[in-house]
Specification:
Elements: E1 13-14, H1 15-23, H2 25-30, H3 39-88, H4 93-122, H5 126-152, H6 159-196, E2 201-205, E3 213-215, E4 220-222, E5 226-230, E6 233-239, H7 250-267, E7 273-277, E8 282-286, H8 289-308, H9 318-322
Parallel strand pairs: 1-4, 6-7
Antiparallel strand pairs: 2-5, 3-4, 5-6, 7-8
């Protein structure tokens, strides 16, 4: 038996401690007494921070794109209304005819741009969104050119009409600017999503002072790397750095199960699975009653050990000991 340490039985067990316990109970037990940090752990912390910052950029970029698309819509509406009022104020028949033709053409291009903007907003395929926004930009540019031509073809200098047409052009230029901003944000987001293999709408990011998920019923807490929404399901995601194992490790599976339980308790609906991502592969870990049962059994074991201090390693693999940061003080180390 390992000498009993002064460990207070905490009300909550974290998903991170559950992962440590599942990897090796003795390593988990010693972690409260040993503050050493392995090189792999340090790299993992840096990788986690980089992931969090990148996810924040994705979320921020998507918000910017959505806001810009709304501004495009309203700026285009104002430009169209202003251009129509300007045409109504033209008194000469020839001027009205020429300008109205060009004005109608410009209006058609603006409406077409709005149509593709709508398609872009409804599309769930990232590449399609980018293509739609490129089309919108082309239509907006053509609308500006036509509106400028409408003013140029006026036979007489009707100041108010020209002023209104100029305002319409300015608003269309503004709409084009917001389109560019939307395109730029979308391109950045697309690159980051591809790099980090992120799908769905990001609902939560473990960054700085992010909310801690809690289960009062099971005494469990945790902060998944991030949470996404896929087809009305809220899915926790855990990113692992370092080497990619042949299959998902049991300790990582239980950590994902813990996050699924926390989502279930917090949202009132259990996710069908959690995502476990390694550098080269990712796995959908099904969340079912069998896995939940194993999870609760492990939590019960941890609480019992916290009372008795009767804890031992659960393996005969020297390789695990070699890479363990608690190895220097472990009485059962194999290497």
């Amino acid at each position: 038996m390992i000498p009993r340490m002064n460990r207070t039985s905490a009300k909550y067990i974290s998903a991170g401690d559950l992962e440590k316990y599942s990897y090796c109970p003795l390593s988990w037990w010693l972690s409260s007494e040993f503050e050493g940090e392995s090189e792999g752990l340090a790299q993992g912390i840096k990788g986690h921070d980089r992931l969090g910052r990148s996810l924040w950029k994705i979320d921020s970029g998507e918000r910017t794109a959505r806001e810009s698309e709304k501004l495009v819509f309203w700026w285009a509406i104002v430009a169209t209304v202003t251009a129509i009022i300007g045409l109504e104020l033209l008194p000469l028949k020839e001027s009205v005819t020429i300008s109205q033709i060009l004005g109608v053409v410009a209006l058609i291009w603006v409406l077409a741009a709005l149509f593709f903007l709508y398609k872009s907003a409804k599309s769930t395929i990232q590449s399609s969104v980018v293509e739609y926004e490129k089309i919108i930009l082309i239509f907006a540019i053509v609308a500006v050119i036509v509106a400028v031509s409408a003013v140029a073809f006026l036979i007489k200098d009707i100041r108010l009409a020209e002023a209104l047409e100029a305002v319409a052009v300015a608003w269309l230029v503004g709409a084009s600017f917001f389109l560019y901003r939307s395109l730029r944000s979308t391109d950045i987001v697309e690159g980051l999503r591809k790099e980090f293999r992120v799908d769905g709408k990001i609902e939560y990011i473990d960054l700085d002072n992010s909310m801690v998920f809690k289960s009062e019923k099971h005494g469990l807490t945790g902060r998944p790397d991030y949470v996404i929404k896929m087809n009305d399901n809220v899915i926790p995601v855990e990113e692992k750095t370092g080497r990619t194992p042949r299959g998902p490790l049991f300790s990582h599976i239980l950590q994902i199960a813990a996050y699924c339980l926390l989502i279930e308790e917090t949202k009132g609906r259990a996710p069908p699975y959690g995502l476990l991502k390694y550098p080269e592969h990712e796995h959908e870990i099904e969340y079912n009653e069998d896995l939940k049962k194993v999870l609760l059994e492990k939590l019960a074991e941890m609480r019992e050990i916290s009372k008795t201090g009767d804890v031992h390693r659960n393996h005969n693999r020297p390789g695990k000991c070699v890479h363990c940061s608690r190895r220097p003080i472990c009485p059962e180390r194999l290497a």
